[in-house]
Amino acid sequence: VSQAFDWSLTARGARGTLRLLNLGFPFAWHAIDLDSPAGRRREQLYGAGETTFEHQLGAFAAAVLGGRGQNFTDSAGVSTMELVDEIYRAAGSSPIPSQSALA
What we know:
Layout: E1 8-13, E2 16-21, E3 31-36, E4 39-43, H1 52-66, H2 74-90, H3 99-102
């Protein structure tokens, strides 16, 4: 009997453990479990089965068409990319250079 593919992510810290179940296809089924000294908490959020791309596209369209949508600051974008760079380093790779660095 073959074992099912485990597409989960676990982070352990001093105050507990966070586990994201079904990282690859969260629109089909997912859960976020937080285990702490206070006990276990499970979070799940389901819409109509939209993919992450559909959510991103909807937010972009809302911002362009009606000025609505999520407002992110420049510093939030920079912080996000710094985090992505750290993930690359932790995985033993080099961060992807920016377009301006390649010019």
